[in-house]
Design goal:
2 domains, alpha/beta, 6 strands, 4-stranded parallel sheet, Rossmann fold, single chain
């Protein structure tokens, strides 16, 4: 009989939710391969943020996660900076400390931070070939994303790729909006390419630690 992982997550925005749901599950599955025995990863449970500030949202999510049987709760916020230091100091660490400080056994306190540098769209730029494929473009399009986490506004970079390239085509060709990319790219982005981004490596390492807490990984 296999062990199971029931994961949950909260996100800052709806588009982040569509992209990160696939990333989180696939990362869990990737880490599960490192464990002894078979680990079945269930679909990741999205918890709607509820609260006046980030800390309140995390505490409420930890409560909801426990009620829903979630074993590992991912908490997302964008760094909005070239470093995740401020996000961890002002949001992530105080929120995790607040949950742990409640000493409530009816909260999920196995928390995993997920903090992309600047914003989540940097992780989309990490797999440039997939981005072109989703846009039905070829490799002749200029690669603007050699170091995705250096773009202060990666969402704008993707929108510029869409605008500049589709302006060259006939109006009869179907235009793709960035909102249509989040879900399919989250399901298909190459995790090896994503692993070149330090913020993703940090997230994956936190997932490993969460599995260790469950005694699934040494």
């Amino acid at each position: 009989m296999s062990n199971v992982i029931i994961g949950g997550f909260i996100c800052e925005g709806a588009t982040d939710t569509r992209f990160l749901s696939g990333i989180i599950k696939r990362t869990f599955e990737n880490v599960a391969f490192l464990c002894k025995g078979e680990i079945e990863v269930f679909d990741i449970y999205h918890i709607q943020p509820n609260g006046d500030n980030f800390m309140e949202k995390v505490k409420n999510a930890a409560n909801e996660a426990y009620k829903s049987g979630v074993m590992v709760l991912c908490i997302h916020c964008d760094a909005d900076d070239i470093s995740d230091k401020v996000a961890f100091e002002n949001k992530i660490k105080p929120s995790i400390d607040a949950v742990n400080g409640l000493n409530d056994d009816k909260l999920c306190n196995n928390l995993v931070p997920i903090v992309p540098i600047y914003m989540t769209e940097a992780w989309m730029l990490a797999d440039y070939d997939l981005l072109l494929d989703e846009l039905s473009l070829d490799e002749s399009v200029k690669n603007r994303s050699k170091r995705p986490e250096l773009f202060s506004n990666p969402k704008y970079e993707i929108e510029e790729i869409i605008r500049q390239t589709f302006s060259q085509f006939s109006a009869r060709r179907r235009h793709i909006d960035i909102a249509q990319l989040y879900l399919p790219m989250g399901l298909k982005v190459d995790l090896e390419k994503l692993s070149a981004q330090p913020s993703y490596v940090k997230f994956k390492n936190h997932v490993k630690e969460a599995f260790r807490i469950l005694n699934y990984l040494e």
